Structure formats: C-alpha cells, structure tokens
Amino acid sequence: MATNHYFTFTIAILALAFSVAYASDPGPLQDFCVALDESKAGFVNGNFCKDPLLVIADDFFYSGLRNTGNTSNPVGSAVTPAFVAQLPGLNTLGISIARIDFAPNGLNAPHFHPRAAEIFTCLEGSFYVGLISSNPQHRLFHKILHEGDIFAIPQGLIHFQLNLGKTKARAMASFNSQNPGIITIANTIFGSNPPIPTDVLTKAFQVDKKIIDHIQKQFQ
User: Fold this and answer.
1) What is the mean pLDDT of residues 114-142?
2) pTM for the model
3) Alpha carbon 141 to chain centroid, angstroms
4) If we measure between CA atoms, which residue out of 145, 179, 146, 169 comes closest to residue 159?
5) Least confident of 6-10, 88-92, 107-111
C-alpha cells in the first residue's frame, strides 16, 4: 500500500513539474522573486519582490497540504491551495498546486480557472471527472479515475470531480500559474454581490422567477 501511495505522489510531483515547461505566467528575470505584501504601495500584475538578502528558507516552504480539508459543507469537498498567497516563493515561477479532499460522494462543483490549465491526479479513491468545451458544441469529456490516474484540463474550461466511493477520497491539482483563480459557476451566478437581477436569470435559464429566488437563497 505504501508503494501505491509513493507512486501516486510521484505522479503528482511529475504533473507539477510538467506544468513548469508550459507555465503561463511571465518567467523570472532573476534566481527568485519571493512575493512581498506591499498592497499599500499599489497594484502590480503579480507581486512585489522581497529583497533577496532577506529571503529565508521558509519563503519556499509550506506544510498546509499535510492537513485534511474540512468537507463538512453542502458539496462535501475542500480545496487546500498552495498558491503564491500561501507560498511566496512561487512568485514568478508559473506553478502552483492544491490538495482536494472529498467526503463520500463529495463533489468539487463545476468551476473553471481563468488563468491556468490543470492536471488533476487521483491519490486515493475513485472519481468521475469531466470537462465541457466552449460554445457552440458544449461537448462533455468524461472519465472515471482510479489511484494514479490523471486528467488534463485546458485553461478556462468548466470542469468538475465527483467522488464515486462511499469512503473519503483525495486528489492533487497542479496548475501552470502561481495564482490560477477559481470561478465556481453556481456560487458566481446565484451568489453574486449584489445579486444578478431576476429578470436576467429567468431569461437566461428559461425558468420561473420562483425557481430563481429559491436557488439564490441557497447561495446568499
């Protein structure tokens, strides 16, 4: 069993390494550019660099992925990111990773990443995964993944993962951006602030106003 876990973990690391070769973020112009929180100084496309002489080993270290995420929520999943906000040493490297924990039958709801492609790696359990192509075909590409299997997800396409088992499951997602972003479809449409006018949603979804009102209440 330990060999299987080592194998799947190795795949996750290789998937992350693969994403480096196709990183979508700008490349570094120095050895490293550890992110510095200088929000009061204004906004930049990325992060300010910490003085290299002040950089320490902890700037390249993050232990958060060893912790199991809290899946006690309506969809039964939890994402633990290791993006530049959690790991400043990722700044300008064009990579990041996230741990995803699933309760039995848990779902990572349909969403997309506006700034990154993804490699989803099954570490424990089995998943029904799918992605949907853009207009006008809306083709659904789907597979069942087992431990060690991976599924590639192009940047900007809607995708999802469902735990097929009656036990907990675990996966790793690798991205070719230090900050891939995430837009969850249902939360964005029905939980926006301020809410999208009902007239817009009733026409877009071709349903009665009562249905829209009911769904919006679930996300506000």
Assistant:
1) 97
2) 0.85
3) 18
4) 145
5) 6-10
